[in-house]
Design a protein that fits this description.
This protein is an alpha+beta fold and 507 residues long. 37% of the residues lie in helices and 21% in strands. The strands form eight sheets. Strands 3-2-1-5-14-13 form a six-stranded mixed sheet. A five-stranded mixed sheet has the order 17-18-16-15-21, sandwiched between helices. It has a two-stranded antiparallel ribbon with strand order 4-7.
């Protein structure tokens, strides 16, 4: 029997099939579009997630994996993203994504008077454009007819699972990402739901991440190739599932994530709400994790690839003109490796979509600085890698101020596949980092499928039996010292440029 994990990240869908011993049977991924029709806007078409999943499953089957032999499925998805559905259970508009920055005015309103304190006390988070509540308030002000037509609310993974099973539900960790969930009472906060402009009864029922939330319908089986009746475990948000799948299951474990967004997540035995971090429950019951996050990490590399390296690619997405096919990212890696530490003076700040931790400033914009006549393309590629690593260290400063321990560090995400980028992160943090395998969200979701159907005795049992470490990178003393000095410069540049962007509404 195979266990299937399906991850709906910000940039695409990845499916991973494993055996009961954690051995990888196969994996496949398909990207989908994000629409940026106005500066600061970020939206996706819900049907694209289903289409991408079906395409990824076909790729998995084409690689020799028997999809029909999958015995259990679990899903995860990027959080904070409300899928608004009409009475017919069809989306009434595109989904506003967590990276969207349009609701700054609504956030300012939520921070007025004692309202911010009330929200923080109940939800453990401060208002920011990343949350569902201010996004819905923006719709209430600008597209009220959308909320009038909204009869049901789901979230990314839940919408796809509804298409798969016909059963609507979400989990309590996903609910924590809305700014409408009372953490202590473990229920929807009707006052905040009303503030969002939703009528009572619109929010979904709550189950645990490891609960079976439905079974594959005959119609979905025909579209996906999965066997009708296959149990589908609820799953949870991508950050919760990927932290779990990477092996961060003990207090003191730390995750550094180089995916579309970047995270530095500290696992704790109890909740530590802080006004500059995000606070969520863990897959392991009773545990929590604190998140300090940057909006753009590997997204920056994807942007660099699409904006500057496409002339070097053929139609298949590999470097053209070479005898042995080489992915475009491999060319970028090689050029970055040809540049020295410090990228010849070029420095990058990765604020392509404003910034979350530690600045919570939607007006910030990305920049290359220190460019000279001697700067080469490889310097820009390396500066981008270093800038993202600096941004992650900037995030880590808040966790250090909170005195949260970091006993073991796991590096995850697509960026961790790059040996150079992994080495840069280890040196910027000046700590050993371990790269788990597969260790991503889709792998964690596959483990949840096994936990929910009794293949594993518990979430920790699944990790103990299945997780493997691919490599551990130790920092190099002289490189770490160089990056320590460069990080100080990185922060000075941020401090100098932030006033330029403040309130300027620069596209």
């Amino acid at each position: 029997m195979l266990l299937l994990g399906i991850d709906f990240g910000t940039g695409g869908c990845k499916v991973t099939a494993i055996g009961a011993d954690g051995a990888l049977a196969g994996e496949a991924s398909v990207e989908y579009a994000t629409f940026h029709e106005h500066p600061g806007w970020s939206e996706q078409e819900p049907r694209d997630w289903w289409t991408a999943m079906c395409a990824a499953l076909r790729k998995l089957a084409g690689a020799g994996v028997d999809i029909a032999s999958v015995g259990a499925i679990a899903l995860d998805g990027s959080t904070h993203n409300a899928v608004l559905l009409g009475e017919d259970w069809k989306p009434v508009r595109r989904t506003i994504m967590w990276t969207d920055q349009r609701s700054t005015a609504e956030c300012a309103k939520l921070r007025e008077g004692d309202l911010a304190g009330k929200i923080f006390e109940r939800c453990y988070q401060m208002p920011a454009p990343t949350w569902t509540l201010p996004q819905l308030m923006w719709l209430k002000a600008h597209e009220p007819e959308v909320l009038d037509r909204t009869a049901h609310v789901l979230f990314v993974k839940d919408y796809v699972r509804f298409l798969m099973t016909g059963e609507p539900a979400t989990d309590y960790i996903e609910a924590q990402g809305t700014l409408m969930w009372d953490m202590a009472r473990r229920e929807w906060d009707e006052e905040l739901v009303a503030l969002a402009g939703l009528r009572p009864g619109r929010m979904p029922r709550i189950v645990a991440p490891t609960d079976i939330a439905g079974r594959v319908t005959a119609e979905a089986a025909a579209e996906t190739g999965l066997a009708a009746g296959t149990p589908v475990v609820c799953g949870s948000s991508d950050s919760a599932v990927e932290d779990y799948g990477a092996g961060a299951v003990e207090p003191g474990d730390l995750i550094i994530k180089l995916a579309t967004a970047g995270n530095v997540n500290a696992m704790t035995a109890e909740a530590h709400p802080h006004q500059k971090t995000l606070t969520y429950g863990h897959i392991v019951p009773g545990m929590w994790y604190s998140v300090s996050a940057t909006n753009a990490a590997a997204l920056c590399m994807r942007w660099l690839r699409d904006a500057f390296y496409q002339p070097f690619a053929n139609g298949a997405g590999v470097v053209r003109g070479e005898d042995s096919p080489r992915p475009l990212y491999a060319l970028i890696d090689a050029e970055a490796a040809s540049s020295p530490i410090g990228a010849g003076g070029v420095m990058f700040h990765p604020y392509l979509q404003g910034e979350r931790c530690p600045y919570w400033d939607a007006n910030l914009r990305a920049s290359f600085t220190g460019v000279s006549i001697s700067s080469r393309r490889g310097d820009f590629a390396r500066a981008l890698m270093e800038g993202v690593a600096f941004s992650l260290r900037d995030c880590f400063r808040t966790l250090e101020e909170m005195r949260l321990p970091a006993k073991r560090i796991f590096l995850i995400g697509g960026g961790a596949r790059s040996a150079l980028w992994s080495e840069i992160v280890a040196n910027v943090f000046n700590r050993p980092v371990s790269v788990p395998t597969p260790g991503d969200a889709s792998f964690g979701a596959a483990l949840l499928a096994g936990v929910g159907t009794g293949v594993f005795a518990s979430p920790r049992d699944a990790v103990a039996r299945c997780l493997r470490i691919d490599r551990t990178i130790a920092p190099e003393a002289s490189a770490a010292a160089s990056y320590d000095a460069l990080f100080a410069r990185y922060r000075l540049i941020h401090d100098a440029l932030a006033p330029v962007y403040s309130g300027a509404n620069i596209p």
